[in-house]
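Why does residue order matter? Because the sequence determines the fold. Keep that principle in mind as you read this record.
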Amino acid sequence: MPLREDALYASYRRLERPLYNVLYRQLWQAEDCQDVIHDAYVRVWERRAGVDEATLDALVWTTALNLARNRLRWRRLWRRETLDEASALPQSGATPDELHDAQRLRAAMRELPPASREVLLLAEFSGLSGAQIAAVLGIPAGTVASRKHQAIARLKTLLGASRDA
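Structure:
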């Protein structure tokens, strides 16, 4: 049975916010996040005849993450590594210390291996369980746990080192 339109809308209502949270921390541009989410749902809808509603959310996550990776590759390819530092940092009411902390965290996140960064972002912002993250990424659940642990340890090291600098 092909994917029903109401099931797709229900998935969008469930996933839009967690998808945005994860994608924003990869792309750092609101418009790009919105575009990727839209494109992911369009692609899933175009393949609706072969989509099982039971695995719909995992398919949307996988599609969105792949589209985000492609967008990042495209930026590097065209040397358009974007980041207007001011536009991606908290503005309203942020203290200079908060702005500095946000810059330090973003710099540390860029230092993580992409696979570890992706697992950490999904674990912290998607609302998915370890088993669900494993299914989305196509890796064993134990790998999810070890990558998350390694990412947190590396962030602690990087943030501790930059604090001393």
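The domain at 1-87 is CATH 1.10.1740 (Rna Polymerase Sigma Factor; Chain: A).
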